[in-house]
Every structure is written in structure tokens, then in C-alpha cells.
Amino acid sequence: MSKPVSKFLLLSTVLALSLPAFAVQDQTIPEDSLGLSKTSVYDDTDPVVVNYGGGDPGTNKRAVRSYSSAPPMITHTITDMVPITRDSNLCKDCHVQPDLIGHKVAKGMAIPAPASHYVDAKKGDLYMGRWNCIACHRPQAEVDVLVKSTFRKAK
After folding, report:
1. Per-residue H/E/C for the chain
2. What is the pLDDT of residue 44?
3. pLDDT for position 22
4. ω before 83 within 30° of 0 (cis)?
5. How far apart are CA 74 and CA 135, in angstroms?
6. Nearest CA to 77 among 144, 132, 142, 136?
7. Partners of 118 in the beta sheet?
8. Which residue of 22, 60, 129, 136 shows the fewest CB atoms closer than 10 Å?
């Protein structure tokens, strides 16, 4: 073996054996430093109950959208309407009204599902990829606003 090769092997062996001595020994993060809350999830055994009231369908005014293309909020209670399944969807009973698309809806009337929700709006054939209404539309919770919205209506 030549001298440069043996020096290289000796140097690389010394470096390889000394690296663990320089490594950080304890890299664990204390449990109380994880997450945003500085308290344990076990400290509050009774979480706040959120009311998704809203009253009966047709009795509330429309909720303001957070931004222009946001899906409308559900302003009435859905307690007796869930779970929504492909075969049991009470939303369709009131909101699948293709004849009302584009027309002004009187107070208390259900807002019709838009044309984008139909395979053929003229026939009233709902696109079945849209059967789970609460995937996009949610009931409005009665809670204090944590962060004020800065969205402005387009002019």
C-alpha cells in the first residue's frame, strides 16, 4: 500500500470514529413545547360546546360570504338532516330547483343549487359527485370571530 493511500485511510478512520463525539446527544423536543397551545390537552376535560343553531329552514337571512367564490353557508339547522348519504339527502328536496336558477328568490325560499351542480340543469339531473353537500357548505357556528376577515367585495 502506498503512503498517500495509507494516510488517507488513517485520516478517514479517525474522522469516522470521532464524528459521534460531535453529534448532538439529546434531540428530543419536550412535550410542552409541541403545538401552539402551551397547556396539555388533558387540562380541559369539558370542551366548549359550539352551537350550530340557525333555526328552521327559510327563517334566516343569508350569511355573508367570506370571499366572492366561497360556497354559501348553511343558515339553518341541519341536525335532523344528517348524515347526508347518496340515497338520503334532504337538501335536494328544497335546493334542487333548476327552474329557479338565475331568478330572484323571494325571502324564505330555498336558494336553488347552481347550474354547476347538475349534469343537465334543464332536466334537473343532479350531478352525483355533488351529493355530499356539507363537503363544501357548512352550518354557521355561533362563535366569536378570532381573526377579522380582510376580504372586500369586488367592485
Report:
1. CCHHHHHHHHHHHHHHHHHHHHCCCCCCCCHHHCCCCCCCCCCCCCCCCCCCCCCCCCCCCCCCCCCCCCCCCECCCCHHHCCCCCCCCHHHHHHCCHHHCCCCCCCCCCCCCCHHHEEECCCCEECHHHCCHHHCCCECCCCCCCCCCCCCCCC
2. 67
3. 59
4. yes
5. 12
6. 142
7. 126
8. 22
Which residues are paired to 126 by β-bridges? 118
Residue holding cell 370571499?
Answer: 67
Cell numbers at 37, concatenated: 397551545
pLDDT at position 58 is 82
Residue 97 grid cell? 330547483
Q: Identify the pLDDT of residue 20.
A: 63
Specify the amino acid at residue 121.
Answer: A
For the chain, list residues with pLDDT below 50: none
Please report, for residues 15, 17, 75, 87, the alpha-carbon distance to residue 4 in angstroms, rounded to integers and kept in the order given.
Answer: 16, 20, 80, 79
Is pTM beyond 0.90 here?
no
Question: What pLDDT score does 2 carry?
Answer: 61
Question: What pLDDT does residue 40 have?
Answer: 72
